[in-house]
Amino acid sequence: MINRNFNENPFIVIWELTRACQLKCLHCRAEAQYHRHPLELTFEEGKKLIDNIYEMNNPMLVFTGGDPLMRPDIYDIADYAIKKGVRVSMTPSATPNVTKETIQKAKEVGIARWAFSLDGPTAEIHDHFRGVEGSFELTINAIRYLHELEIPVQINTVISNYNVNVLEYMAKLVEELECVLWSVFFLVPTGRGKETDMISPVQHERVFQWLYQLSKKVSFDIKTTAAQHYRRVVIQQKIRENKKTNKDIQYQDVLMNGMTGQIDGLGRAPKGVNDGNGFVFISHIGDVYPSGLLPIKAGNVRTTPLADMYRNAPIFQDLRNPDKYKGKCGVCEFRYVCGGSRSRAFAMTGDYMESEPYCVYIPKVLRKQKNNV
Fold first, then answer.
1. Number of structural domains found in the chain
2. 116 has which bridge partners?
3. Three-state DSSP class for 111?
């Protein structure tokens, strides 16, 4: 794993190639439309952007949308990035655009991994969530094509009130589909996402506990999105387990770096990748944000180099300083490895530095204060 200073370079870059999409997902961050925007970054602008991304210590690059397959030059863009040595993954929508031929072409170009969304273990649940009948069947067929061509498959699932009660069946389906990673998204009320569709803070905690226990017995990896406090649950559980086995563990090291210096079952980087901290999002028209769920623009790649915005924009600098977080997040002993969802804080309070609204944990310093009263 490449060592990274998140103040200088991101761990992962998400590029929304287009907002065009044939689906009508209930939670869609992008509020995607059927037609492409006339001001999308051009192929030449995309090449310049890829050059800038590569120069930032070559982070992972994910093509998303909308549906990236709605761009006819998607494979030319991918080919340019891959030939530079950039690691490219793609998250297309499961539509008739996904055929065995398109997947074969992606393999020939060298796209490392595909990710598809599955929001329920049945067509009834998934198709309702995605807004188009037949989406479930198209997704399953696409995954079968990927297996035939020996391309790793990732499944993305948005947890909401629509599917929280069928997660065990969902996990079983992910295993049956032989996926390498289950990326579990926790709803943020932005775009088409509604607060009424979110599970409660207590349900978040219960799902985190369940995911951790699941991670110890399944063949696929598990990561979370917009659920940074899952890292806190993982670390708490690992500390308890290490105490039971009398393993020596340095508590402060765990809080700063995770249980290892690398993956640690958290799904990705150890030191709390978060919105604007190891993570950057570029929109279809070149606007730069800390994430796709935190709609505060730092600038545009047409006028300002990506590195300048990532390193110097005030919002990015704020987000990389957990000591500036407000409320309980600012004093929490897990703030360096967790930090809460800055997107959810903004969506629900209007302040991206506020506490994670859907975390039930009371930091140690606040418990001590309460006991001293």
1. 1
2. 155
3. coil
